[in-house]
Amino acid sequence: MAAALSAPLRQLLLATQLGLSVHHPLAGWFVLTILYRDAGSSSEPVTLSYLARKYNNDYLDTSGGETPIADDVLKKVLDVLVTQAGLVEMNPRKVRARMHNGSYHIVQSYVYRITSSGIEYLKMMQKVIDAETTITANTNRIQEYVDLVAKLSVPVRSGADTQLYNDFQNMLNAYDDVMKGIHKLEDDLDELANDIAFNHGSQAASHLQQMLRHKAIPAYQQMLNQASRIQGLANDATFADQIAHSQQGSDDLDAARAVGRQEALVMRLQRTKQWAQAQMTRLALSMSPTATAIDSSLDSIYLVFNTLLGIVHLLSQEFEHAKRQTIDIKALSKKLDGLLAHYQQLHIPAQVPRHLPADREVEDPGDLLDASTMGPVSYLANPTRKQPASETDNPDVTDDAPTEQAQMAGLREFRQTLMVDDRHGRVDHDLTLQTVTARDEIIKLFAATYHEDLTGFAPFGRLAKTVNALPDTPPLQLQVAGEDYAVVLPCGFKFTFA
Question: pLDDT tens across 164-189, in order?
Answer without folding.
Answer: 999 999 999 988 888 888 777 777 77
